[in-house]
Every structure is written in C-alpha cells, then in structure tokens.
Amino acid sequence: MLTLLAKVYAASQLKQIDETLKRTFEGVAVETKILGAIADGWVQIEVAGEDAKIATNYLIKEIGICPRHIGHIKKSAVMKGYISNFETTGEELLIDIGVFEPAIVPAVVPLHRLQLQLADGRPLTLGEISELFGFCKGLPVNVKILKVSQNRIEAELSNKQISDYTLWRDSLLDRLIIMGASLNEIKATLAHTKLYRDIIDVEPLGLLAHSLICKFGTDAAGLIPLIGRFLKHASFSIFNAKRNYELLKI
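User: That's the sequence. What structure does it adopt?
Assistant: Structure tokens below.
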C-alpha cells in the first residue's frame, strides 16, 4: 500500500486519479487499485503485478509518497505540499506535506518569510500576497524545511518555487490555475469551448492541479465562467503576471 503525495477533496476525484493511473500504466504489467483517502485527503493505492516495482518507483519519483510521520522530516529537505486552509489576515501559510501520524502537522511558512521571498520585504498582508500569487486551498507548492520540533515544522518556499514564480511574473502572461480536474478533462473542455486560441500551454502542477498559460492579452479571470460551466467540481485561482510585475518591480 502506498500513500501518494496527492490530495482529493471529493469522492469523484478518486475516480479521476484512478483513470489517470490506468492511462499512465497502459501496456505495463501492473494493476493499480484506489483504496480511498486518509487523513485530510491523501490518496492510498495498491500496486500489484509483474512490473509493480517499476510502477512503484515511477510513482515515488513523479508523484511522491507521504512521509506520514514527523520523525521522517529532516531539516533542509525540499518537499512538495498543498496549501491548507488559511486566514488571509493571518501570520502563517500552512502547507500540508503529508505528515499525519500521530497527528496532522503542517509545514508553517511565516508571513515575514513570504514577504522577504516574494515581495522584497514589503509589508504586504497574507491576503495581498495570496491574491498576487494565486494562493488558495489545495494549491501545490514546494517548500524547504527550516526547523523541526516535536509538533511544529517551520519552512520557507523552495528556491525552485521562487524561481518558477519569477518566470511566471516576468512572462507578463496570466495563468489560470485549475485544481480538482484531470489533464484529460481540461483538454476536453478547452476543445469543447474552443478556448485553445487563448491558451499557450497547460502545465501540470500535480495530478489534479494544472496551470493554463494564457496568451498575451487574455484575461485569465474572464475564462473562469466559460471553463467553470464544464468543470463544476474544480476550483480556480489566478496568477496575474502584469499586476504582480507592476506592484513588485524595483
């Protein structure tokens, strides 16, 4: 049994992951079975068959496995997680990195670190930073572990995560981030709505999280009503590159 570093927020999303895994291993002597979700939505699967070891190694490399216990978290490790519930007026961004034994312990990114990493030290609120970078519940992010104690994990955004946001900003292209939909569902929706003319590419952020790179001049917010009609189970956030650049430029 494996606990994937992938989260679901509705039962229907387990089916999406099941279909995605079956497509991934088509033609491979392996069978994957979704067992359900544990803790706060982490997906558990069973892998069997002649090529089970190959498939398992692929899943570990491409998706990741939950560390489960806080004792498995090491200082300076770079880990993938998902933004948990947060208060936009709060002082901490909580990232669920898959620690749920003996209790759920998120990685905590203090607001002052976000200000230093994303806003050149400007005293922006968590709400303002979230609006600029599209932070919302379920968004995948990579963090670097700074401190680990018995019941607290402190972290900051990883260098790669900061680099990615810098590239996004400097492109001056909006991004529509879709969470809770598979790549196939998104592609089918874009084809049905004929919105491919407004999209440069679809970049995977996770199994059920994707970033739609908009063409220059396309307003990402304007796409939500058109796409949302067909992806009713999905949630959306926006990375507004131009506004980000204008506010944070030196």
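The chain has three domains: 2-62, 68-162, 172-248.
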